[in-house]
Every structure is written in structure tokens, then in C-alpha cells.
Design a protein that fits this description.
Shape: globular
CATH topology: Rossmann fold
Number of strands: 6
Radius of gyration: 15 Å
Strand order of the largest sheet: 2-1-3-4-6-5
Number of domains: 1
CATH superfamily: Thiamin diphosphate (ThDP)-binding fold, Pyr/PP domains
Number of helices: 7
Helix content: 40-55%
Order of helices and strands: HEHEHEHEHEHEH
Largest sheet: 6 strands, parallel
CATH class: Alpha Beta
Strand content: 5-15%
CATH architecture: 3-Layer(aba) Sandwich
Length: about 200
């Protein structure tokens, strides 16, 4: 199973049946896995439209909406739809690609700090790392549903989506400190019964 297949299987297990976006080289392996895995890809005219469609899908179905964009300008275009989902409190998973690790932070055409871009308009941004992809994506889906639903952005590396995933059952999730705090707060709110899925 490659990473794209694992991503699609995890999304499908959460009730996600379609995703919205625009094709690009970095997300083509994911789109192919969606086709083979029975998750519809809906072509939109603009990444912002993909975000809006995913927002509405999340509100209508209760399962997180899914939108997909490439790195750089594709991600910035997606931000408006994600911001709408944040304000609407809609469960949403956004997948944007990133540069290869050795290219991060360099002033090249497509690099934008996706974590900084999406931080004010999402519940979390999570990096998908080798050996932790399924577990991190499952955590993202759970976070999108709790403490008042909202968007979570997951960011695989540009070349990692189509790579083989050797350890699909990894249990340990390595999250940034703010991500760990967000997940702990979500669990506490749910345990104490202070929030429901529709709050």
C-alpha cells in the first residue's frame, strides 16, 4: 500500500465519499488512489471553490468535507474556503502538498509556509510524516469533528504521497506542541461533556 492509498482508505473509513480540487503534479497520486479507492474527485474551477464545496459537504453530511490543492498559490487560493469553514464551524480536511524537506524555507517559486498561512483559520495543521500517516490523518479527522467542528489541514511532502508506506500501523504520533495541546483540549472537552458534535 502506498501513502496515497493509505490516505484514501483512512478518509473513506471516516465517511468521506468525495473530494474537491484542481489536479496538479503533486496531488496526482492521491487523485489516482481516490479513483481506485471509490472516493470521487470533483473538479472545481478554482481552489477557493473546492474549499467552499468541502465546507458545505461537511455541514450537510456530518462527515468532514475534503478539499485538495497543490502547494504555494494553490494553497493560498484554498485559504478563503477554509476560512469560511472555520467561521461556519464545518468539519473539513484540507490536503495541500509541500516541497521536499531539503527545499523547505528556500526562496523558490512555490514555497509558502503552510503552517503559518493556515494557523489563524484552522483548528490545526498537521505534517504527514513517514510511518505516521494513517495515525496522523485519523487524529486530524477526529479533531475536525470535536470542540465545535472545524477545518484541519494536513500537509504531506511533495514527493511522499505516492511512496510506499512500510509501517501502516504506526501507533506513535509525533505532533508539534500546539498540536498536542489542541488534541488534549479536544479530548478533555468531550470527556467532560461540555461539547457535542453540533456545538
Amino acid at each position: 500500500m502506498n501513502n496515497a492509498d493509505l490516505i484514501v482508505a483512512t478518509l473513506k473509513s471516516a465517511g468521506i465519499t468525495r473530494g474537491f480540487g484542481i489536479p496538479s503534479g503533486n496531488v496526482l497520486p492521491l487523485m489516482e488512489a481516490m479513483r481506485q479507492g471509490g472516493v470521487d474527485f470533483v473538479l472545481t474551477a478554482h481552489e477557493g471553490s473546492a474549499g467552499f464545496a468541502a465546507d458545505v459537504t461537511g455541514r450537510i453530511t456530518g462527515a468532514p468535507g475534503l478539499c485538495i490543492a497543490t502547494l504555494g498559490p494553490g494553497a493560498t487560493n484554498l485559504a478563503t474556503g477554509i476560512g469560511c469553514a472555520f467561521l461556519d464551524r464545518s468539519p473539513l480536511i484540507a490536503i495541500t502538498c509541500n516541497l521536499n524537506t531539503d527545499q523547505l524555507g528556500r526562496r523558490i517559486q512555490m514555497w509558502i509556509d503552510h503552517h503559518a498561512l493556515f494557523k489563524p483559520i484552522t483548528k490545526a495543521t498537521l505534517q504527514l510524516r513517514k510511518g505516521e500517516i494513517g495515525a496522523t490523518l485519523a487524529a486530524a479527522i477526529a479533531l475536525a469533528w470535536v470542540i465545535g467542528p472545524g477545518p484541519v489541514v494536513v500537509i504531506p511532502g511533495a514527493s511522499s504521497i505516492g511512496q510506499l508506506e512500510a509501517n501502516v500501523a504506526a501507533a506513535d504520533i509525533v505532533l508539534r506542541e500546539d498540536e498536542q495541546q489542541a488534541l488534549a483540549a479536544a479530548a478533555s472537552e468531550v470527556r467532560e461533556g461540555r461539547v457535542g458534535l453540533n456545538n
